[in-house]
């Protein structure tokens, strides 16, 4: 990782811990995210490697999605719940050769690793943080399929969540209206890849662009600060292929299934726009016109290139679709509800 960090510093990267803030032109870079092909460092995200003869069986009993469907050609969104069906973490699960990789914010990796180990018992399963050995980057934009295929020397997948591992590379197509790829490889290989892509006029931008594109795609990211708050359906996970209702038992499965088949969902995930004169923070509460109690929470938020903020919020369906919704207090900044790029009431086959 030191080689990679030094390489990006030479390219003008401004760092804050593991986050690349920008490459010297923050305003220009922010505008580029929605209009150009862009390249992002994802050092703020970690990779937890899961190996062993019982890895598949073990993970199958933990996560909301069907781990048996993950292979060299297919990754998946998934979540890990507690016994009450509340989401602890959301992540991408990827197969790289014979090993599983859990791709999630680095800040939550140690806690996930520690908690997973609690359930291993006698299973042949090992966990290794490989975030220092493997570097994650992303390219997004209308020409990303062409540019990435040319840079890597092989065709990259064009369907959401499809993946390929060839040579040192593992490549995953990320869901969303903007073509976007997660690229995983060793640091030396990624240095070459970065050079090749920037030579094609792909603009390097700060790491926050990844979260901005996740928000626009309606893909929530849950980590430690919002753990235990939502069942997966509140995060629209059934609509984006993050739950398999036929896979069998896993932590919290009975609660999740009951919500799907026997209960009425009262809260769900909304795409929202907030004005520039507010200061939104993850976990902030929302209020209706006359509500003393919170009707929802802000899950993810980023500055929008066109001004103000864009975010994902879990809100009361009844309140959000009948009355104005305000941030932090009654009469606070009004949230504008936007259309998600998918039907939140649908159930995608996972």
UniProtKB/TrEMBL annotation:
GO BP annotations listed: iron-sulfur cluster assembly
Q: Which residues form the GCVT N-terminal domain?
A: 27-172
Q: Which domain of life is it from?
A: Bacteria
Spell out the protein name for this chain.
Answer: Folate-binding protein YgfZ
Q: Which InterPro entries match?
A: GcvT/YgfZ_C, GCVT_N, YgfZ/GCV_T_CS, YgfZ/GcvT
Q: Fetch the NCBIfam families from UniProt.
A: ygfZ_signature
């Amino acid at each position: 990782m030191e080689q990679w960090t030094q390489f990006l510093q030479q390219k003008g990267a401004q760092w804050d811990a593991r986050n690349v803030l920008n490459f010297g032109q923050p305003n220009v870079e922010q505008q580029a995210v929605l209009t150009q092909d862009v390249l992002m460092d994802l050092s703020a995200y970690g990779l937890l490697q899961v190996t062993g003869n019982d890895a598949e069986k073990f993970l199958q009993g933990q996560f909301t999605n069907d781990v048996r469907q993950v292979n060299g050609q297919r990754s998946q969104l998934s979540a890990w719940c507690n016994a009450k069906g509340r989401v602890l973490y959301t992540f991408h699960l990827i197969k790289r050769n014979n090993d599983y990789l859990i791709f999630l914010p680095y800040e939550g990796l140690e806690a996930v690793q520690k908690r997973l180990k609690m359930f291993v018992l006698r299973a042949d399963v090992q966990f290794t943080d490989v975030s220092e050995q493997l570097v994650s980057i992303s390219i997004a934009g209308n020409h990303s399929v062409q540019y990435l295929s040319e840079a890597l020397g092989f065709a990259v997948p064009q369907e959401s969540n499809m993946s390929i591992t060839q040579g040192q590379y593992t490549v995953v197509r990320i869901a969303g209206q903007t073509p976007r790829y997660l690229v995983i490889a060793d640091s030396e290989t990624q240095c070459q890849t970065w050079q090749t892509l920037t030579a094609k006029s792909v603009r390097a931008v700060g790491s926050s662009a990844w979260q901005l594109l996740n928000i626009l795609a309606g893909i929530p990211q849950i980590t430690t600060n919002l753990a235990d708050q939502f069942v997966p359906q509140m995060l629209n996970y059934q609509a984006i292929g993050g739950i398999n209702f036929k896979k069998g038992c896993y932590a919290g499965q009975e609660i999740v299934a009951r919500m799907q088949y026997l209960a009425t969902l009262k809260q769900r995930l909304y795409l929202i726009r907030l004005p520039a004169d507010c200061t939104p923070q993850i976990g902030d509460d929302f209020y209706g016109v006359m509500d003393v109690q919170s009707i929802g929470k802000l899950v993810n938020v980023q500055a929008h290139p066109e001004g103000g903020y864009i975010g994902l919020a879990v809100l009361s369906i009844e309140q959000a679709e009948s009355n104005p919704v305000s941030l932090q207090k009654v009469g606070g900044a009004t949230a504008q509800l936007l259309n998600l790029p998918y039907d939140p009431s649908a159930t995608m086959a996972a």
